[in-house]
Design goal:
Layout: E1 6-8, H1 18-23, H2 25-32, E2 38-40, E3 49-51, H3 54-63, E4 68-70, H4 72-76, H5 78-81, H6 90-100, H7 106-110, H8 113-124, E5 132-134, H9 135-152, H10 157-173, H11 176-180, H12 190-216, H13 225-231, H14 242-273, H15 275-288, H16 296-299, H17 303-315, E6 322-326, E7 330-332, E8 335-337, E9 342-345, H18 347-350, H19 372-375, H20 394-411, E10 412-416, E11 424-426, E12 430-432, E13 437-442
Parallel strand pairs: 1-2, 3-9
Antiparallel strand pairs: 2-3, 4-6, 5-13, 6-9, 7-8, 10-13, 11-12
Helix pairs in contact: 8-9, 8-20, 9-14, 10-12, 12-14, 14-17, 14-20, 15-17
Length: 443
């Protein structure tokens, strides 16, 4: 592209964009995105630039990725999650990515398909015809069960406590006041005390699992992700210590539990709001699966289900924003920027660019026909991030989302309850402001 256009976002004297952002972060970003390729924002202490062009996003996330680190939001996660794949940088991150990558080979992921479907069927046994279901809570519980079996080969009570602790963590990072005023975390507030308590508890639970597995040694019949992490060896023969394994386990649990649960919950809600899409999905399920249980062999055949999941992640991307900070001066779109410049790449706004997605606010799974995801400009659509740091578990997440959706939609029709109003809440991930309650009707 040529010289990138530049603009400034809406701002008030003294406080800049702060009030606009706090009122409604997502709406504020939507207002800024059409202004220019690069939009300068002002949050009193922070002045990030919003990137609204896929080519510029590619420059930051791929072509000049070595010049950028993750932003302060990711660094604030380090006391909780440690330095796993989500938060680590540089040579250490590359080493860990290389060690963990074999756990996500296609053949290994396919082996989890039966667990995914079996756990979904077990969860659906508790659903009653005409009952109102807290779908977000149900999907969080279901994906926690699945990722627990993938990580540890079993379901343990402590893992449900991990999910509850991570919920507290997400609530803390979902408060925009903490985003703009990080000094709040030092005040003697109940939220801060609770946050520190669950952080310590998370550490104790996961370290306990690791110690127990090390004591048992490699003789047991373990073929799970924890076993692979403990057995992984670098080129020099070195292995991960307990802290490193603990950090990676927490990141894998959060990514495999939180984001997939949100993606599936938003998918079910959007289908409820769009009956023609729901009918098209059920027709495909009847044709491909019929009355039997979905299997891994059905995954590639459920093309409309793939379209539905992709479209839901376009409108409601669980990873709604990516932040980067420059470590050295750089050029972007013909403009010079200094070291320390903070850049935002936001799937929430990129996925709403009418140039690439006509009728961007409409839920239209059909738009993905003809392999649209392959024809789009790189980084116009990035629900799993992009570049070298693209989500390591994206294939796992897609298989889980499609198979769980197929299993649920085969047995139940879901209608979003009239109250409370469904609205997005931008935390580290894109959560629900008031939860998601839906009425289940047996098919």
């Amino acid at each position: 592209m040529g010289i990138a256009t530049v603009a400034r976002g809406p701002a008030l004297p003294l406080i800049g964009s702060t009030a606009h952002y706090l009122r409604n972060p997502l709406r504020f970003l939507e207002q800024c995105a059409p202004l220019a390729d690069l939009v300068a924002l002002d949050f009193i202490r922070y002045q990030p630039w919003l990137i609204n062009d896929p080519a510029l996003a590619e420059q930051v996330l791929v072509k000049n990725a070595a010049n950028f680190t993750k932003d302060m939001f990711a660094r604030e996660l380090i006391p909780v999650l440690g330095e796993g794949l989500l938060t680590s940088e540089g040579a250490f991150w590359k080493k860990q990515r290389r060690l963990i990558q074999p756990a996500f080979h296609r053949e290994r992921i396919a082996g989890y398909a039966t667990t995914m479907v079996e756990q979904t069927l077990r969860a659906l046994e508790g659903w009653r015809d005409g009952a109102t279901i807290d779908v977000h809570h149900a999907m969080m519980s279901l994906t926690a069960e699945i990722v627990t079996r993938a990580l540890f080969g079993t379901v343990a009570g402590d893992l449900h406590e991990i999910a509850a602790c991570l919920d507290v963590v997400m609530d803390r990072f979902g408060d925009p006041l903490y985003t703009l005023l990080p000094s709040l975390e030092r005040l003697p507030l109940e939220r801060n005390r609770r946050f520190r308590t669950v952080t310590a508890r998370l550490d104790a639970i996961v370290r306990g699992f690791i110690s127990e597995r090390r004591e048992k040694g490699p003789s047991g019949p373990h073929d799970d992700l924890l076993a692979m992490l403990l057995a992984a060896r670098d080129e020099d023969g070195s292995s991960m210590d307990d802290k490193t394994v603990r950090d990676e386990v927490l990141v894998l649990f959060l990514a495999g539990h939180e984001t997939t649960a949100l993606s599936l919950s938003w998918t079910l809600h959007l289908l409820s709001e769009n009956p023609p899409a729901a009918r098209a999905l059920r027709a495909e399920l009847d044709a491909v699966v019929g009355g039997r249980t979905p299997t891994v062999d059905d995954f590639a055949k459920l093309t409309y289900a793939h379209h539905v999941v992709r479209e839901a992640m376009r409108l409601r991307p669980p990873a709604w924003a990516l932040g980067r900070v420059a470590v050295a001066p750089f050029e972007l779109g013909g403009h010079h920027f200094d070291a320390g410049t903070w850049l935002w790449v936001t799937p929430w706004t990129l996925h709403r660019n009418p140039k690439h997605f006509p009728e961007p606010e409409q839920f239209l799974p059909e738009r993905w026909e003809g392999d649209l995801h392959k024809r789009l400009p790189k980084f116009a659509y990035l629900p799993f991030g992009g570049g070298p740091r693209v989500c390591i578990g994206q294939q796992f997440a897609m298989m889980e989302s499609v198979l769980l959706l197929a299993t649920i939609a085969q047995r139940f029709e879901l209608r979003t309850a009239a109250t409370p109003v469904v609205a997005p809440h931008p935390s580290i991930t894109l959560r629900f402001k008031h939860g998601l309650h839906m009425v289940a009707t047996k098919r």
